[in-house]
Automatic annotation (TrEMBL):
One Pfam assignment: PP2C
Leader peptide range in chain numbering: none
PANTHER family: PROTEIN PHOSPHATASE 2C (PTHR13832), PROTEIN PHOSPHATASE 2C 30-RELATED (PTHR13832:SF758)
Domain PPM-type phosphatase: residue ranges: 1-120
Protein name: PPM-type phosphatase domain-containing protein
Example GO molecular function: protein serine/threonine phosphatase activity
Amino acid sequence: FLNENAHGGACCVTALINDGNLVVSNAGDCSAVMSRGGVAEALTSDHQASRPDEKERVEALGGYVDCSRGVWTIQGSLAVTRGIGDGHLKEFVVAEPETRVVRIESDCEFLILALRWVVG
């Protein structure tokens, strides 16, 4: 995105199975959810500007986070704090994902990888 001077950005979620482990990573507002014994278990947490640790990270870099019309944004522009692209906010929007490793057990039924899509 940045090398091509592309405008905008993207969020992502990935899953990898290796040696009986499920490795999930996300950057932005994508989600990984596992059904374990009939119960949904969130494996990721969205990187939203309203998240206290993400707000603190952005502000420590000299950015600002505010709420306008019920939506938390960084620099009054973007609601996610991690993603790929968004060059005009790159000093605050990082592409570094959060990663979690889960051992696959017999009660692990299926995995859902999803993008949160908000129209409004």
